[in-house]
Amino acid sequence: MSRCLCLLAAASLALYGASSFVTPASPPAAPQAASGAAATVREAVEEAAPASSSSASWSPLAIGAALGLVVAVMGGRPALAADLENGESVFLGNCAACHAGGNNSVVAEKTLRKAAIEQYLTGGYNAAAIKTQVTNGKGSMPAFGDKLGPDDIDDVAAYVLDQSTKW
C-alpha cells in the first residue's frame, strides 16, 4: 500500500513539475501601432514568421525530468514491509547461535523448517506467530522484544518465513 502511495505522489510531482515547463500556446500579442507604417512592418514580420501551433509543446527538459523521476521511483529499491537482507543480519547476529542453518541446538526437533514451525509454533506457520515467538520467547528461547526494535523483529520473522522452505 505504501509503495502505491509513493508512486502516486511521485507521478503527481512529475506531472506538476512537467506542467511548469510547458511553453505558451500562442505568442504574446504585440502592442497596437499608432501609425500605418508600423502596421505594415508588423504584417511583414507576421508573414515571415512561421505560424505557431495552437497546442502547447512540451519541453525536452520537462520530459527528461519526468522520465528520470519515474525511472528513479520504479528502479529504486522498493519499500517493503520486511527487509530480508536486514532480517538475515539480525538472524546471524542473534539467532544463529542456536538456530544455525535452521536447526535447533537446544531442542533438536523444533527446527525452523516449515513442517516443524507448523507443528510446534503457537499460531502456526505465519509471520505473526514468528514475531510473537521472537518478541516474547517461549520455553528455553529467550525473549528478544526488549533487545530488537519492531522493524528488526518484522525483518527477522520475514527472513525465517522465507528460509523455512529452503533449509
UniProtKB/TrEMBL annotation:
Family annotation (Pfam families): Cytochrome_CBB3
Record key words, sorted: Electron transport, Heme, Iron, Metal-binding, Signal, Thylakoid, Transport
Residue ranges of every copy of the Cytochrome c domain listed in the record: 82-164
Subcellular location: Plastid, Chloroplast thylakoid lumen
Signal peptide: 1-20
Record family assignment: Belongs to the cytochrome c family. PetJ subfamily.
Functional summary from the UniProt entry: Functions as an electron carrier between membrane-bound cytochrome b6-f and photosystem I in oxygenic photosynthesis.
PANTHER family the record matches: CYTOCHROME C6, CHLOROPLASTIC (PTHR34688)
The protein, known as: Cytochrome c-553
Classification of source organism: Eukaryota, Sar, Alveolata, Dinophyceae, Prorocentrales
